[in-house]
Structures are given as structure tokens and as C-alpha cells.
């Protein structure tokens, strides 16, 4: 059952034989009889400029809802709100699932790259040694100079490999001829 409408001027209610009712743009309800008493495009109640709309079953649902009972409106809109909330929750879960999958892929890529970096750190060339200030003539030509041991515990993202020129500078040249070489 709809909320009863009545004319805000003469207080008559709509009946089968009664005149039609109109809704003004300023929010007043007037019967056709009272509407004719006032000036054109002016509300009889508040005297403001207004437009009118004849109330019938063909008016928009928004206008019809103004005359519905509150409990009927609550049922109608709670159903709509529930459907909207369910849709949004489903959409949020899908969004979350997609992002969780992307994060898992990124975590796996990060793990692989970290492993590769650790392997590269283990394979990096030995660090330079400083040459002795005075070359020893009694040195064994086949001896290998001692070098610092390479520890593969670094997770640095920057390469610490020496440049080619640094490697060339660090090379020691033995002035004694090799016994294997022909002179």
C-alpha cells in the first residue's frame, strides 16, 4: 500500500472521481483544482518558480519511490544493496587473487635472481695481490702467489669484478726464463 498523497493546499486525497495530483519541482503536492488557482509556473504553497509533473503510474521509479512505504523501500533497496555488495566482494576477491598470483611469481623470480647472484659471487675472479716491493731472485718460478680466499656470502647487487686494465696491472711478470721455454 502506498503512502496516501494529499493536496498541500486543500488537503483533499486522491479518489477515483477526484482530480489528478501534481508534484511541483519545489516538492509540494497539489490537486489540479488548487493548481489552477495559482499563477502559472509558481507554487501555490511557497510562491517560488516551479514546474509541475502529473502523478501517474507512468512516472519514473524515482518519483514513485517518494510515495512508497518506508518498509517497502527498505526491502527493495536492501535487496539491491545486497546484490551490489555481493558483486563488489566477488570482484575484490578476484582482484586480490590475481595480485597474489603476481606477487608469488615476483617472489619466485627474486629467489632465482638471488641464487644466480650468489653463484656469480662464488665465480668472481680472485682479488688482486700487491706485488712485493723487492722481487726475490730465489723464488721458485713455478710457485703461485698466495691470494685472499673468496667467500661467497655477499648479497651485493653491484659487481666487484676488476676491470681488464686492473687485472693487467696486477699480473706479475717473472724476469727469469721458464725452463720449458726455448731461449
From TrEMBL:
Gene Ontology process terms (BP): homologous chromosome pairing at meiosis; protein sumoylation; reciprocal meiotic recombination
Keyword Zinc: yes
CDD domains named in the record: RING-HC_RNF212
Residue span, RING-type domain: 7-47
Biased amino acid composition, Polar residues: 135-167
A Gene Ontology term for the protein's cellular component: synaptonemal complex
Record flagged with keyword Transmembrane: no
Residue ranges, annotated region (Disordered): 122-183
Residues in the signal sequence: none
GO molecular function, one term: zinc ion binding
Domain of life (superkingdom): Eukaryota
Sorted UniProt keywords: Ligase, Meiosis, Metal-binding, Zinc, Zinc-finger
Pfam families in UniProt: zf-RING_5 (PF14634)
Name this protein carries in UniProt: RN212 ligase
Organism: Polioptila caerulea
Gene: Rnf212
Amino acid at each position: 500500500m502506498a503512502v496516501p498523497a494529499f493536496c498541500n493546499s486543500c488537503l483533499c486525497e486522491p479518489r477515483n472521481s477526484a482530480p489528478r495530483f501534481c508534484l511541483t519541482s519545489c516538492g509540494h503536492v497539489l490537486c489540479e483544482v488548487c493548481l489552477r488557482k495559482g499563477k502559472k509556473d509558481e507554487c501555490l504553497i511557497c510562491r517560488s518558480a516551479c514546474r509541475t509533473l502529473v502523478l501517474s503510474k507512468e512516472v519514473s521509479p524515482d518519483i514513485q519511490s517518494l510515495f512508497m512505504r518506508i518498509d517497502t523501500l527498505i526491502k527493495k533497496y536492501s535487496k539491491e544493496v545486497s546484490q551490489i555488495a555481493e558483486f563488489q566482494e566477488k570482484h575484490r576477491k578476484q582482484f586480490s587473487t590475481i595480485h597474489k598470483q603476481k606477487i608469488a611469481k615476483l617472489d619466485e623470480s627474486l629467489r632465482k635472481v638471488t641464487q644466480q647472484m650468489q653463484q656469480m659471487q662464488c665465480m668472481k675472479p680472485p682479488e688482486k695481490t700487491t706485488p712485493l716491493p723487492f722481487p726475490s731472485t730465489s723464488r721458485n718460478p713455478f710457485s703461485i702467489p698466495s691470494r685472499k680466499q673468496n667467500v661467497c656470502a655477499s648479497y651485493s647487487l653491484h659487481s666487484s669484478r676488476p676491470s681488464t686494465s686492473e687485472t693487467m696491472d696486477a699480473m706479475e711478470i717473472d724476469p727469469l726464463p721458464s725452463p720449458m721455454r726455448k731461449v
